[in-house]
Amino acid sequence: FDVDADYNAIVEQNEDILRLIQERLRSAEDASGMMKMMNELAKAVNATIDVEWNEWLSQVAEVYNQELSNAILPVVENELAAIADKAAMIDKNREQVALPMLIRSARRETRKNLLRAKAEVATFHDEVSELEAELEEAERQLKKVQSSQQKISQLSKSVESAHDLHFKERSNRQTADSSYFKFFSIEKLHNWVLTGSSNSALSLVFRGASSSQLTLSFSITDTLVVTLDASMNKVPRSAQSFLSESRKKKFHPAVTGFLSKKMSLLCEDLKNMRLLSPSEIPSVIHFAELRAARIEEAAKEIDTILKRCRDSFLQPSDTLKHEYEFTAFFKNSSRKRDRLRVTLTIADCYPFAPLDLHLQSSSNQFDTDSMNRRLRKIAKPGFGALTRVIDAVHALVR
């Protein structure tokens, strides 16, 4: 069914009518009427084409149906019948072959089960022999145990007496250990003064350069549990004569406050320490001595710098807890109107932490960025870091 050929044939047969329709479509007056006529004509043509197409499809379907029923279905039915015959023949042959094989397989399995049963019987016989031998050995062991029971009863009494002796020995050893560790803790101390000692207590005073004194008091219970109490300015009168007044130093008031606060923090840290045995007393004393000495060295350094720099002061940090800020003002002879403000943040673990440095120029005549880069290379952790930074600032300002 060729649509284009049919369309061309219709156009050739009705050429005059189509031209007349074309002329009327071009005129404005008959445009609406011609459009309706064209639509109706198109619907009629489409309906004619659909009718012819459906007739052709029905004819093709009928031809295919006749072909299937006359030529293909008989062949398929014959092949299905042949397949069914062959399947039945195979089932018969399978039954004839499978029956002797099943009989042979059953005989083989019966023979295997018989051999397995014989092997198990032999194994059980060997196990019975071993059990008899073990029974005889157990009887001999029983006789030996019965003979040794008398010896065990005699040893039990000896063990009880040995246990009592061991308990007494442990209590005596605890007393001896307590005395030994206390003696070992104070026998080589050079910066501490012993203010009190007994079997259950030990008191020491740190011999430092500041007027405030660090006192450590250890208490030892019967179970060797040690408690520590650290305080400031609680020195007995009997120990005042052992504390040399020549080593005392008069610090700047701000440095005195710095020392007092840092020593109070040290006391709090020492109180929070937990000692499990008297053997830990030497390490605690050594830790307190190192930290107290570090605090005093930092105080001496800050005091020296405060005396050197007139326009300087020390105050606690407003933003960081347990830290201090050292501020100093520097002038240049050629720039009298401009002042350089240097602020150094001193951490709680100084000098083991780097200094936090901040520079500020009052009239921006100093190159603070360049100076900051140079000073950060100098402000590294270590004793004397604060002094090195101040000396470097003096050299850069000149």
How is this structure best described in words?
- The protein is of the alpha+beta class and 398 residues long.
- It is 63% helix and 15% strand.
- It is built from 7 helices and 8 strands, in the order αααββββααββββαα.
- The protein has helices at 3-13, 15-26, 31-186, 253-271, 281-308, 368-378, 385-397, and strands at 192-197, 201-206, 214-220, 226-232, 312-316, 324-332, 335-346, 356-361.
- The strands form 2 sheets. A 4-stranded antiparallel sheet has the order 1-2-3-4. A 4-stranded antiparallel sheet has the order 5-6-7-8.
- Helix 2 (15-26) crosses helix 3 and helix 4 packs antiparallel against helix 5 (281-308).
- The chain is flat, with a radius of gyration of 57 Å.
- The two termini are 110 Å apart.
- The model is unreliable at 182-187 (pLDDT under 50).
- Label the overall shape: flat
Distance between the termini: 110 Å
What low-confidence regions span 5 or more consecutive residues with pLDDT below 50?
182-187
Look at the helices and sheets and give the structural class.
alpha+beta
Mean pLDDT: 79
Biggest sheet details: 4 strands, antiparallel
Q: State the share of residues found in helices, binned by percent.
A: 55-70%
Number of strands: 8
**With helices defined by DSSP (H or I, 4 residues minimum), what is the helix count?**
7
Radius of gyration (Å): 57 Å
Written as H for each helix and E for each strand, in order along the chain, the element string is HHHEEEEHHEEEEHH
How would you describe the oligomerization state of the chains in this entry? single chain
Walk across the major sheet and give the strand order. 1-2-3-4
Work out the strand percent: 5-15%
